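Saturday, quiet lab. Running sequence design on the C-alpha cells for the scaffold JK sent over.
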C-alpha cells in the first residue's frame, strides 16, 4: 500500500510544481515574437554565396560557415537528355566507374585514400545533371578538390572494370523494374515526351547497357565534361579563397573547347498528351501517374505551382491524423479508402517540365481516386481560398529553411542553382516570391497549366478499372453555366 501512496503524492506534487512553473502570458507572447523574428533573421543571416569563374569557364561557388565539416562537389550540366538510343545509360555507367579508381589512383589506392580521410563519397545522374561530391572534415577540403578533379579528368574506364560494372548495372535494372513507382514515372516520361531525349531513362535499357563499350564511355566523357558546364561547389567550414586556389591547381586542365566546335545544343522536347498502360492483374495494387506539361526551371510560375501542390498535399496510410488532414484529397482518401498513398510533383527541366500526381490504390478504387484527384485540380483552378494558400505558403517556407540543415543539402543547392538559374537565388528572395502568391494567382496559374489540357498518363498493375483516355480527358474541365 505504501508504493501507491508515494506515487499519488508524487503526482500531486508534480502537478503543483507545474502550476507554479507556468510562465506568464506576457512571457509566452515574447517567446512567440522571438520565434517569428528568428525566422526573418535566419533568412537574412544566411552567408553570402561567393562565385568565381576560372579562365577555362569553370565556376567555383561556396558558402562559408563555422561547421567542422564541409561538402565539396562537382555539378556537370549533362545527363540522359544528352544521350541517344545507342549510348543511353552512358552517364549512369560513367558514374558507376567514377569511384572505381583513376589513372593516377588505381581502385584500391583510391578507396584507401578516401577512407583515410574518413570521407563520404557519393554521386548521382539525372536527365540534365551529373554530380560527384565528397563530405569530409573542413581541413581536408584541398584533398577533396584534388580527388574530384582526378575523377572528372582521369577516370580510368578500364576494360575489366567496365565488364564488372556492366553486370552490376544489369542487376540494378532488374531491381528498378520491381520499384513500380519508378517504373510508372519512367513510363510517364516515355509517353509525355515520346520520340524526344527526355523520354529515355537515366539508367538506360538492358539492350543499351549490354552493348556500351569503353570507347562509347570515353567519347561521352570527352564530349561533355567541359569546364563551362561545370560548377565546383562547397559549403561548410571552408575559405572561398582556398577553394579557388585549389580549383586553379587541379581544375585548370579541364578542357573548354569542343572538337570541331560541335557545341551540344538541346533540342526542344515536345509534350504529347497520351498514355501508357501496362496491365498486370497479378500485382496487388495499381500505380497511376498523371501529369500535364509544366514550366522550365527559370519560369516564375514554378513558385505558384509549388503552392498549389502544397494545397493538394500528400498522403500515406502510415500518416497519423486520420480524417483530420489539412489536405481535402487526403481527407477523402481516408474517409472512403481511396488509395494507399498519393503524392504530387513538379519536375522541371531547362525548358519544360511535368506537373502532376501519382497514387497507389486497390484495383476497385482506381476510378474513384482518379475522379477525386481531378476534381481537386479543378477546384484549384476555380475556387482556391486564401486560407489554403496561407497554409501552403507556410509549408513551403518550412521546406525552404530545412535546406539549411547540413552542408550537403546546401552544397547541392549551390551547384544545381548555378546550373539551372545561372546564380544562387537567396532564401530571402524565395521567401519574397512565396509571400507574393495569393489565391487569385493560384487559380490563374493552375488554369493556365491544368484547365482543359491534354494529360499524359502512365498506369502499371491491375488497372482494368482505369477509364478510357477520353473519359479522363473530360475530367480536365468543368461544364459551367
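Result came back. Writing it out in full:
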Amino acid at each position: 500500500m505504501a508504493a501507491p501512496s508515494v506515487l499519488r503524492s508524487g503526482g500531486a506534487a508534480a502537478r503543483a510544481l507545474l502550476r507554479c512553473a507556468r510562465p506568464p502570458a506576457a512571457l509566452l507572447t515574447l517567446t512567440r515574437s522571438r520565434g517569428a523574428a528568428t525566422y526573418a533573421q535566419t533568412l537574412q543571416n544566411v552567408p553570402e554565396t561567393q562565385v568565381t569563374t576560372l579562365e577555362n569557364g569553370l565556376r567555383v561557388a561556396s558558402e562559408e560557415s563555422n561547421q567542422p565539416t564541409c561538402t565539396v562537389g562537382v555539378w556537370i550540366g549533362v545527363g540522359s537528355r544528352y544521350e541517344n538510343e545507342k549510348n543511353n545509360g552512358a552517364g549512369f555507367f560513367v558514374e558507376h566507374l567514377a569511384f572505381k579508381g583513376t589513372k593516377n589512383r588505381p581502385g584500391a589506392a583510391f578507396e584507401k585514400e578516401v577512407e583515410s580521410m574518413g570521407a563520404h563519397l557519393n554521386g548521382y545522374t539525372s536527365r540534365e545533371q551529373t554530380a560527384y561530391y565528397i563530405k569530409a572534415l573542413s581541413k581536408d577540403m584541398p584533398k577533396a578538390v584534388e580527388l574530384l578533379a582526378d575523377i572528372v579528368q582521369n577516370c580510368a574506364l578500364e576494360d575489366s572494370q567496365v565488364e564488372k560494372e556492366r553486370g552490376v548495372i544489369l542487376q540494378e535494372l532488374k531491381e528498378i523494374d520491381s520499384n513500380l513507382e519508378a517504373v510508372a514515372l519512367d513510363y510517364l516520361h516515355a509517353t509525355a515526351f515520346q520520340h524526344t531525349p527526355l523520354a529515355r531513362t537515366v539508367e538506360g535499357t538492358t539492350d543499351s547497357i549490354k552493348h556500351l563499350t569503353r570507347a562509347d564511355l570515353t567519347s561521352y566523357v570527352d564530349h561533355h565534361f567541359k569546364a563551362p558546364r561545370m560548377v565546383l561547389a562547397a559549403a561548410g567550414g571552408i575559405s572561398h579563397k582556398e577553394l579557388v586556389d585549389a580549383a586553379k591547381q587541379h581544375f585548370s586542365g579541364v578542357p573548354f573547347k569542343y572538337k570541331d566546335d560541335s557545341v551540344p545544343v538541346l533540342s526542344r522536347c515536345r509534350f504529347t498528351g497520351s498514355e501508357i498502360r501496362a496491365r498486370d492483374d497479378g500485382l496487388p495494387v495499381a500505380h497511376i501517374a498523371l501529369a500535364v506539361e509544366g514550366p522550365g526551371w527559370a519560369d516564375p510560375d514554378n513558385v505558384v505551382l509549388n503552392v498549389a501542390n502544397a494545397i493538394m498535399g500528400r498522403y500515406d496510410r502510415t500518416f497519423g491524423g486520420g480524417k483530420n488532414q489539412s489536405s481535402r484529397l487526403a481527407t477523402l482518401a481516408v474517409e472512403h479508402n481511396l488509395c494507399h498513398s498519393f503524392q504530387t510533383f513538379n519536375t522541371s527541366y531547362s525548358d519544360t517540365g511535368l506537373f502532376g500526381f501519382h497514387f497507389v490504390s486497390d484495383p476497385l478504387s482506381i476510378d474513384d481516386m482518379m475522379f477525386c484527384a481531378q476534381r481537386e485540380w479543378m477546384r484549384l483552378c476555380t475556387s482556391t481560398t486564401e486560407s489554403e494558400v496561407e497554409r501552403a505558403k507556410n509549408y513551403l517556407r518550412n521546406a525552404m529553411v530545412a535546406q539549411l540543415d547540413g552542408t550537403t543539402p546546401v552544397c547541392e543547392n549551390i551547384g544545381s542553382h548555378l546550373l539551372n538559374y545561372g546564380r544562387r537565388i537567396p532564401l530571402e528572395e524565395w521567401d519574397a516570391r512565396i509571400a507574393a502568391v495569393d489565391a487569385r494567382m493560384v487559380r490563374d496559374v493552375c488554369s493556365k497549366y491544368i484547365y482543359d489540357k491534354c494529360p499524359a498518363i502512365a498506369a502499371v498493375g491491375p488497372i482494368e478499372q482505369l477509364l478510357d483516355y477520353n473519359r479522363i480527358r473530360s475530367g480536365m474541365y468543368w461544364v459551367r453555366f
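Notes for JK: The CA atoms of residues 154 and 439 lie 53 Å apart. The first strand starts at residue 49 and ends at 53. Ask whether to fix the surface positions before the next round.
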